[in-house]
Amino acid sequence: MNRTRLLGLGLVGLAAVPAFVVAGVASPAESAARALPVPVVQTCTGYQTETFTPGLNSTLRQVAGEGSGELTSCLPFGGALPASGRVTSTMSGLMSCDGGTRTRTTTITWDDGGTSTLEESGGVETPVGGGRSAVFKGKVRSGRFAGDTTVTTRTLSPLPKPQCTTEAGLTAAGGPLVVELTHLS
Question: How far is CA 38 from the centre of its chain?
Answer without folding.
Answer: 15
